Amino acid sequence: MRRHVIERTRSCHITVTAGYYIGGHVVLFLTTRKA
Known about the structure:
By secondary structure, the chain is mainly α. It contains one helix and no strands. The longest helix has 33 residues, at 2-34. It is rod-shaped, with a radius of gyration of 15 Å. This is DUF411 domain-containing protein.
């Protein structure tokens, strides 16, 4: 059961990190496009 919780937390962390990474690139792309 503990192992399952660790796996779930790890996958959640990866999703959040990817979200921030993609979000940052989208903001960068939009600001570059405006200028």
